[in-house]
Specification:
heterodimer, A: alpha+beta, Vanillyl-alcohol Oxidase, Chain A, domain 3, about 25% strand, B: Rossmann fold, about 50% helix, about 15% strand
Chain lengths: ~425, ~240
Amino acid sequence: MSYHSWGRVCPPAAHGVRLVARDRPLPAVGQPWLARGNGRSYADSGLEPAGCMLDCRGLDRFIAFDAERGILRCEAGVLLDDVLQVIVPRGWFLPVTPGTRYVTVGGAIANDVHGKNHHRAGTFGRHLRAFELLRSDGSRLTCGPAENPGWFAATIGGLGLTGLVSWAELALRRIDSRGIDATCTRFETLDEFLAIADGAVARHEYTVAWLDASPRRRVRVRGHFTWGDHVADGAGLAARRRRAGPAVPFAPPWSLVTPLTTRVFNTLYFHRQRKPVSQRRVDYEPFFYPLDGVREWNRLYGRPGFAQYQCVVPRVAAADALPALLGRLGAAGAGSFLAVLKTFGDTASPGLLSFPRAGVTLAVDIPWRGEDTQRLFAALDAITLAAGGTVYAAKNGSASAACFRASTPALERFRGFVDPACSSAFWRAVEAAA
Amino acid sequence: MSGVLIVGATSAIAEQVARRYAARGARLALWGRDAARLAAIAADLGVRGAAAVEQAVVDLEADDLPARLAALAARCEGLELVLVAHGNLPDQAACEADFGAVRAAFAVNALSAMAVAEAAATCLAQQGHGTLAVISSVAGDRGRASNYVYGAAKGALTRYLQGLRNRLAAAGVHVLTIKPGFVDTPMTAHLPKGALWATPERVADDIVRAIERRREVLYTPWFWRWVMAVLCAIPEGLFKRTRL
């Protein structure tokens, strides 16, 4: 059994121990370890190839659910998918959800994930009432906003480096229906995007934009802006009959994502939206999790794998930084099917190392081309840093270690909370970065 | 929905089957040895939608199994399903070194499973309906040097269930023999994994479907039926020279 990153570029971790009961002491593995969830971190922030992975997928039990108050307590290895299956039929929803439901609760904490409602709800960590942190010295700390607040802030977004989270309790959001009223509109310049975004965040719970990031000589910021809200008519909470979607059966020797295929796909996709504004009522699953419909989609990038670059830059710097970032991506011929643009609100993130901060975030998937891609990351990092932005460890991993270090002032305080037994390839790169 | 009893409820496959019945609102009873883990699983099944969950630490070698089953059936207004899922994987080399280990392997994998199956058979026959599903193994289909102690115990269990099926057919009770291949569970955590390995989730889906369709024997995943058909077709004179 080996543990891979989602991008399949980083060296996998060969050793792991599966945990099965939350009340047992941590196994004595005699080497550095890192808690492992469902392996959706793109790069090496969730891997320790030089140590042992403590596999938490066996910690997948619910503990208690108060369906009156919307409070759920569960073990850290429970998938958000499992949470949704339990809470949605009873009229509750995740307060914050990332773009895949195949992450564990522990992983959502360790990366302090965000969603399309960041401008209203902030990050996942803001909705945590408590969790238990197991440390390598055998101690068990219950952490919450008022109990062990230092450990609480360090562990949220702490990339698993403060210990292992065994269970967590979160406050849910009420819903009346599974449905989402979604509206989609085109934008053809950055100013248009920002204007639409400013209007949408004031009135709507969820906002996100798909960006046509085809490689081309002249930078163009165009794409589809989507906003959505939960349907409020009090009907339709019953579970849909789900069929397993198609799967990519194996990783081909070469990437299927090339400048040509991305350009064709993106152009077709951009023009799919014909009307200036289109409205539809959709189920929450395709609205929040379009990629979950194709299992193992990461294999599309072939044996070389892929990376994702995600950064956030302050709003005032966006007009310069975003075209510069897209220009650099275009010059590298690193086109992408999947580029996402979103504004973050100014709600403070609860974790010392949390990624989201006020501004505009860009996320772009990039086929991996070895050193070329590493040079591209360095160039993009320079733009991000100059703009006063930062990068997302769960996506960029150690390719952006120096930028992460330079743009994360809380790192010094965070070090005091790192468990001496915990380590990751990303963390070693951050500590080695100049 | 009437009651569902899971024996060996902390086993990975059993827990996955229990979750599927919990999601349908079943009334569940869990038997096992580890009270703390049973309690954790019971709480989980409650959140997942079980109408009620009770758990008990039960000694399967005690003589009170028929009485316990009868009392449970009375509490649940009948038992719809009894799943017998406990077992362990004996160390073949240790068994060859010490016959006590063989006795212990038979006590767990054959005799205690038979004891609870026998008690359940009587209970289900009295009510005149229900399913007795027991996890045996593909290893019971043919003896092999690498694990014939486990294989012989599971083989005996398979034969016992054949007899029970024959006996209970007239009473309207369905007996399902479950033969998983390699399943990635804590019982097999120490073994290297390959392409033939299945997840407990997959195996549990197969088990639930086989119970619904009143299958007699389930190989899970499906290809083990053909793997074992080929293995069992090899003449003994040739088979004894293989290392499988």
